[in-house]
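Protein modeling request. Please complete all fields; requests missing the sequence field cannot be processed.
Requester role: graduate student
Desired output: 3D structure, token encoding
Chains: 1
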Amino acid sequence: MFKYGLEFRRKALKLYVQGNSAVSIGRLMGCAHNTILKWAKEKDICRTFKEAAEIRKPVYDSNFRKMAIERYASGLSSTNVAKELGCSNRTVLDWATEAGIKRSISEALKVAGIIPPSQKGVKRSMETRLKLSGDKNHFWRGGVAPLQKRIRMSLRYRDWRTEVFERDDYICQKCGEFSVAGARLRLNAHHRTPFIELLTKFELDTFEKAMACEELWNVENGVTLCVGCH
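Delivered output (230 residues):
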């Protein structure tokens, strides 16, 4: 006995044959995209990786592309351009590279605001660097970086990440991308409330406290995002 009726299956396959992606059909009809792909396979309706990629790939006209390149060339970061125009930062970077616009790592860091504007281009001696390192630096957060790394390498963190991925069907919740045969999509389990905020809020200054804090492992605080949307 089928969970979905024959008419439901016919409608889903008709939309798939018309060129709609399994993800978009699944969202429209309220079923899993893997179910639609299974039905298509049973009917020998198969797509090559290139065909599937073209269907999922957003179409941008030349004016949109030109606008993105101009904003990037004006000094905005690819992330800011992407948020402003509603596309992925990877797309912006690809267009910029094709247009011959390249930034060094230091230039990219300056654009991202990691280096304070008043300090851009300033080279400091080793003595000065030591004076501004550790708890003497205004970016100091109490030495939580080693603790964060240890937590992220723990088994419980990997289990939490897997639970987030499984709940979201291994689909980016922002752009709808997912892995297909021949192209593995890298995913991240993003914290809705930043990880560092949780550590600070619940005063988790040891590994043992972090493991025992249930709020830190709340799956609802996680969301699946691809690298481009993260």
